[in-house]
Amino acid sequence: MRVLVTGGAGYIGSHTVKALHTAGFEVVVFDNFSTGHRELVMGRNVIEGDLMSKHEVRSAFSEFPCDAVMHFASLIQVGESFRDPQRYYTANLISSLNLLDGMLEAGIDTFIFSSSAAVYGDPEDVPILETHPLRPANPYGQTKYFVESILQDYARAYGLRFISLRYFNAAGADPGGELGELHEPETHLIPNILRSLLEKDKTLEIFGTDFPTPDGTAVRDYIHVSDLAGAHALALQKLLEGLESGVINLGANHGYSVREVIHKVEEVTGRTVEYREGPRRRGDVPVLLASKARAEKWLGWRPRHSDLETMIRTAWEWHRSRHPRG
Ligand code: UDP
After folding, report:
1. How many helices (H) and strands (E) does the chain have?
2. What is the reported pTM?
3. Which residues, given as ranges, of the chain have pLDDT below 70?
4. Is 313 in a helix, a strand, or coil?
5. Which of 21, 75, 248, 300 has the most CB atoms in a 10 Å sphere around its CB?
6. Cα–Cα separations (whole angstroms), residue 144 to 229, 233, 288
7. Measured in angstroms, how far is the CA atom of residue 210 from the centroid of ligand 1?
8. Which CATH number fits domain 189-220+253-322: 3.40.140.10, 3.40.630.30, 1.25.40.10, 3.90.25.10?
């Protein structure tokens, strides 16, 4: 079984490539390396290509005939999506459409999509079930919502078989130490805290201390990136075995506030985190918490590394290994 993985040089993509190798799949990585990193790509089958080019997508499928596709490649920064929605809609939608066109032409019908909890917006109830109404609160989330709608129409009309995985907050690094998070600029909480400990010019800012939560800071459902990666391999196996198309949350069903994460980092690293308190970031909601009942039932998925300490420890080992002051 051969799988084409777009964005396989990125954070979640590269961990999933590792999980796919472990599960016995042959993998072809397709990445334009605009934000991905060559050193994170495992395996020899690598295509440097751009999903905005139909021609490049077509030649990828003719060079490497595949049984399935996993689509990670995407712009992912919420703040930037407010400032430049044109770029987000164009990149995230056209690239997905080109990829699906290429699949239909090549007769590939099995697809795993990287979606996001951002499709829910500010939830009415937590934990969030997959049946919760979809009201994305930012252009980034809208692009994920639109691609999910396209997948449902393509499934009905062309027999596409898909699973859309709605990630909550990916965190941590490969427990084997081979892979980790390398975003530039970094916008995520845990790497920003760790980098504030390692880099002189980086100060942590807490975005919002007036949320309606017990300590005033926002609560998120953090899930270890290797658990996310494992869920992709399981979703693909189940889809190939006949699981119906659909959407599945990937979260731990456990929430931590920004202050709780900071305290745990201090405990794990033995260092004091300095920070300033700033205003809320646009589009941030107070609480996101996943129901993982469907992931457990449909995929038999059990997160193994998603306790806060393991997520922070693996991320800390990764960041320290890459930093001279570590
Ligand atoms: N956050 C923060 N400071 C940072 C980065 C993030 O206070 O430097 C907060 C952010 O406002 C949110 C939580 O941490 O409440 C998680 O943010 P992240 O960007 O990691 O993920 P998101 O939930 O936005 O996808």
Report:
1. 11, 13
2. 0.97
3. 324-326
4. helix
5. 248
6. 19, 21, 17
7. 14
8. 3.90.25.10
